UniProtKB/TrEMBL annotation:
InterPro entries: X8, X8_dom_prot. Keywords: Cell membrane, Disulfide bond, Glycoprotein, GPI-anchor, Lipoprotein, Membrane, Signal. This is Plasmodesmata callose-binding protein 2. Its main location: membrane. It is found in: Cell membrane. It holds the Pfam family X8. GO terms for cellular component: plasma membrane; plasmodesma; side of membrane.
């Protein structure tokens, strides 16, 4: 029986789904809404130093690009938990990295969806 469980765990681990995910601001929003997202994200734990003047992600210097960076930083720092990329319906999760200037890197963390199926099979919450 133990060999079966170990084999099943290995099979699930090999078939785990992992994709990098990013949070971006929705298109078509006013600069005021985008700025509110930046202000909230940067004030609530996002690392916004890269979008300050002379920062690696300052250019392109648009409210939309700065919003993308800020909400994504917030989303990553919150561990990609459900709801951390909503911003009152003005942001969304995507698997496509936002366009960025040379030297600007958007954080991403792959999501591994192996623990829930594994816990269902083994019968314990992981």
């Amino acid at each position: 029986m133990a060999a079966f469980v170990v084999g099943l765990v290995l099979l699930l681990a090999m078939s785990a789904h992992s994709d990098a995910s990013y949070c971006v601001c929705n298109s078509g929003l006013s600069d005021g809404v985008l700025q509110k997202n930046i202000d909230y994200a940067c004030g609530a734990g996002a690392d916004c130093s890269a979008i300050l003047q002379n920062g690696a992600c300052f250019n392109p210097n648009t409210v939309k690009d700065h919003c993308n960076y800020a909400v994504n930083s917030y989303y990553q720092r919150k561990g990609q938990i459900t709801g951390s990329c909503d911003f009152q319906g003005t942001a969304t999760v995507t698997q496509t990295a936002p366009n960025a200037a040379s030297g600007c890197v958007y954080q991403s963390s792959p999501r591994f969806d192996v623990l829930y199926p594994l816990s269902a099979v083994v019968g314990v919450m992981l």
